[in-house]
Every structure is written in structure tokens, then in C-alpha cells.
Structure prediction request, 262 residues.
Amino acid sequence: MGAADTSGYALELQDLRKNFGKSEIIRGANLAVRPGDRVAIIGPNGAGKSTLFNLISGRFAPTSGQVLLHGQRIDGKKPYEINRLGLSRSFQITNIFPKLSVFENLRCGVLWSLGYRYTFLRFLSGLKDANERAKELMHMIHLDKKRDVLAVNLTYAEQRALEIGITIAGGASVILLDEPTAGMSNSETSRFIHLIREVTVGKTLLTVEHDMGVVFGLADKIAVVVYGEVIAFDTPDAVRANARVQEAYLGSVVADAQAGGH
Prediction:
């Protein structure tokens, strides 16, 4: 990875830009996230949050600028290449194998990280390390009792938990979660925040989230994106007090969150 690793950052965006035709969606975004930080990316609709995630995870190539993972440039690489370098992402829409059981979903997620490539001659039931890791993950996401249930038959919250399990299955050090609590009830959201905290211990987490209660309950730092730029990146308290953020985005939303004790 070279001398760039001396920066000590898990993930860096350097003057990142993305144009779609004549429209500039990301306009020189800069961000430097340290290992172990939990970062929520917030901003108004159309600010470029999802585009930023797509640039980081390799779904889009930037028009200019750089994305570095532990000091190594990953901009322009394919998503699976970035995943193998230690970055994993979940999506707004649940992304699981519906006709496989909970256990089978998780076992699929661990195979590559354990060194099993495209070999179809092995019987998966005989892969002791993969089976043990899948069991560990199943316990972490509290789906032990649903081991043999097909993913399609899980509740929505259980499907989201399974997707989190698949996302962390490969042992990635940097995890991207795209609106992980969308569509959940208040009680489900509360449990899910706790789950995310549990399974990402020791990892670097970036999440796009609209629910301010989730943001202030989960994040150590908040990055505010407005018109394709990161206008603030600081602790939740500092972001709450940032006049530019108040004017550009948060306003009464933060006041409501504070009043609610979030």
C-alpha cells in the first residue's frame, strides 16, 4: 500500500467529483475517517449522499478526485475488487438470497474471505471453518433460532439483520450501511441500532441515515453533505451547534431531536 498508509485514515475522499452529463452532483467532497469511527452521513434529499456511497463502493467511477482505503487508491476499481480490499456495503433495498436459509446466506458470505474460490466440487457441508463462522455470525445477529428458515420468510427487520450479517461476513474493516433502519418501527429501530453497534465493534462504519434519532444515537461523528460538498464533519454536539449546518439543513430537525432526548 506504500507510504500513503502513514496518514492513519481508514477512508479518505480527496476533492471527489462526479458529473452526470452537465450536472455536477458531487462537487469536490473531502472527508478523512479514522479507523474505528462511526460516521453518519446526513443531508437534504438530492444532496448527493447515495452518489457518494456509490463512488466509495465502486458502483460509480468519479469524474475526478480520489478515494483511498487505508491509504490505497480504490477509485475506478470494480465493487468486488474493493470488497476484497476490506470494504463492504449494504443497500437501501434488502439484498439477500431469498430462497436460501439464514445459515446458507451467511455461509455464502464467508466463503471468499476464507479462501474458497470458484470451486463447485466441494461439499459446503464439509467446510468446517465456513460453517463455524456462519454459526458465529448467526449468533451475532440474533437469528440462531431461524437457522433453517428461508430468508424470504423472515420479517423485514430480520431480513435487514441478515443483510448486516452478510455485509460483515467477509471480515471487512470498513462497513457502509445505506439507510439501515428505513421502514422499521420505533422498537425495531432501537434494537437495530444496538445490533449495529454490537457487530461493528472495532470496525469503521459509515451510514447514510435520515432518522435524526438514529444519527445521534449511533454516530461518533457526523458528515453533513449539501449540494455535493461536505460542509461539516465533527461530533454530534459540534454539528448541532454549527451555524452553517443549521442554516443549510438541520434547523428545527435538530431542535426536535434534542427535545425528544436523542
In short: The chain is about 35% helix and 25% strand. Strands lie at 11-20, 23-33, 38-42, 64-69, 72-73, 87-89, 174-178, 204-208, 221-226, 229-234. The first strand starts at residue 11 and ends at 20.
